[in-house]
Amino acid sequence: MMHWEKLLASGRFDPSKKHLDVKKSLRSEFEKDYDRIIFSSPFRNLQDKTQVFPLPEHHFVHTRLTHSLEVSSVGRSLGKSAGEFLLEKYPEIKESGIQSSDIGAIVAAAALTHDIGNPPFGHAGEEAISDFFRYHEYGHVWQPHVKINEWDDLCNFEGNAQGFRMLVSQDNGLQLSYATLAAFTKYPRPAHIFERIKGRRSQKKYGFFSDQIIDYSHLAMVLGITKINSECWLRHPLAFLVEAADDICYSIIDLEDGCTLGLVSLEETIALLAEILGDTFQPGKLEKYNSNSQKLAILRALAIGKLVEECVVAFQDKEEEMLIGEFDQALTDIIPSAAALSQISNISIQKIYRSKPVLEKEAAGFQVLEGLLEVFSKALNHKFYQTELYSGKDKSILRLLPEDFPLEGWGEQVNPYPLLRALVDFISGMTDKSALSLYRRVKGISLPGT
């Protein structure tokens, strides 16, 4: 069984040390996490990564950055409310110096980073990277040279695992707290496992690459997170709140964006949100607002507020089961509004996620990311394996890689997994625009400065 005093332990991620001295400050360690993330380059890059829709000229729709800020805001409310409950139930937490605002800060910081590992073009980008290694000639060529668990990483690119990699990387200098990293990790398992345990939400995807199992093992040991088997752990209970914040925001706000762009009618949107509000919905009050955007804004705020209340109650009901691993579902699947959210999801799939602008963006993402991976992977393979094919074109391509890219020490006798991991880091870390721009240049579609 897990214990809250240990799950909320202070200290920053550093596998080289068992304990870290924490200097006293006006800000808690978890508030510092939030500030470090806000000022980091990976977080800033989210401003040019689309959430669902391509960025139009005449309408405001959400980017990954605005979505992440909103999820973080909802997460803070969830965490603080849950924290008040936990402090009342477990006085020993309060005695250790933890306040409800600290728990709110952990969830807010983790929620702020929940999409930080997403590649350009969103989920289509994840599939494009995976498909390149599964099917493309110059992706599949690497399979004989890496281990089976490493090949699973490459063929199943996962933004959550990429996010964990970025957050613990010394290059990004974040050194977040253990608790924030654990709350971020919704899927505490690697890609390659013997058998996924059916019905456990935390095993739906994976949360770290095979070369970082040691990192997560260290984190879990420090916080006392229970191991299910040799490959998988239970979730940190606050990860359920991070997941709920994301579920709430994308359900409600993607619908709002779809209505703004005319894909879902205002009448249908109001009816869907009214299902969540139930008896508290007062249609007459909407008439006070002149514009549709004002009507959507007030309904969105009311719906999110209702969903937050319901998720906090669900967390309180299931908290003890989370500590022993008996509860492993999405909170939004067990709240009173679950059916209404499911209805919104169905409408969103039909009218938003399969709309022409979204499908065109996804098609472009496949083309761009496959193209970039092809030219760089081909050049790397020619340089280190099919050396007789290494050309001047390959040399020019490799000069476009970052200065710190590891271009030495590879060959037939050396496992190229770290090399491929660095390549995927480079491609997945791009913004939509930078990926498109580089693709055009390496394909000769445009020249620099044009």
Automatic annotation (TrEMBL):
Residues 64-251 form the HD domain. Transmembrane segments: none annotated. Gene3D superfamilies: eoxyguanosinetriphosphate triphosphohydrolase domain-like (1.10.3550.10), Hypothetical protein af1432 (1.10.3210.10), putative deoxyguanosinetriphosphate triphosphohydrolase like domain (1.10.3410.10). PROSITE patterns: HD. Keywords: Hydrolase. Coiled coil: none annotated. PANTHER family: DEOXYGUANOSINETRIPHOSPHATE TRIPHOSPHOHYDROLASE (PTHR11373:SF32), DEOXYNUCLEOSIDE TRIPHOSPHATE TRIPHOSPHOHYDROLASE (PTHR11373). This is dGTP triphosphohydrolase. It comes from Shivajiella indica.
